[in-house]
Design a protein that fits this description.
- This protein is of the alpha+beta class.
- It has one domain.
- It is 19% helix and 30% strand.
- Strands 1, 2, 3, 4, 5, 6, 7 and 8 form an eight-stranded mixed sheet that branches.
- A hairpin with an 8-residue loop joins strand 2 (32-41) and strand 3 (50-57).
- The longest helix is centred in the C-terminal third of the chain and has 16 residues, at 119-134.
- The chain is globular.
Length: 149
């Protein structure tokens, strides 16, 4: 299997575990979903990087200030469906790449990513995500024992 090189702005297919599910004792995500990589932390030489992802969902977020709607043109660019979708920025998973939860894109057994978010759009995501983290309003879920904060 050839996994993509992890980079910020890359949208991957991932079995996302919501923080409320983790708090309830779940250890696996309920379904695979697109997720955007918002942080890549390089480790010591020879060790895999630690990745931070935020989920993409069709459901409008309970807090509109903690999610960004993806424009239809960007969804088309990524090959996602035409339903409205939001990137949720107050809930994130951290894992060592490639981890156990990276999944093939539906219908493409050897492809694990959808593509890159456009830089200008991604800047808004990273700004809002950083702001929420700084304010202590973003819930972190570690997906493995090696992931660092």
């Amino acid at each position: 299997m050839d996994f993509p090189q992890p980079e910020v702005g890359l949208v991957i297919s991932y079995s996302y575990l919501w923080s409320d599910e983790a708090e309830a004792g779940h250890v696996e995500g309920r379904k695979n979903r697109p997720c955007a990589i918002v942080l890549v932390v390089q480790q010591a030489e020879g060790k895999a990087p630690v990745i931070t992802v935020v989920p993409i969902t069709h459901r409008p977020h309970r807090n509109p200030d903690a999610a960004i709607e993806i424009p239809a043109a960007i969804k088309r660019h990524l090959g996602l469906d035409d339903q409205p979708s939001w990137i949720v920025l107050d809930d994130f998973n951290v894992f060592t790449w490639p981890g156990y939860d990276l999944r093939p894109v539906t219908g493409q057994k050897d492809r694990y990513h959808y593509g890159l978010l456009p830089p200008r759009f991604f800047e808004g995501i990273i700004h809002k995500f950083s702001e929420l983290r700084r304010q202590g309003q973003a819930a972190r879920t570690s997906r493995d024992d090696e992931a660092v904060p």
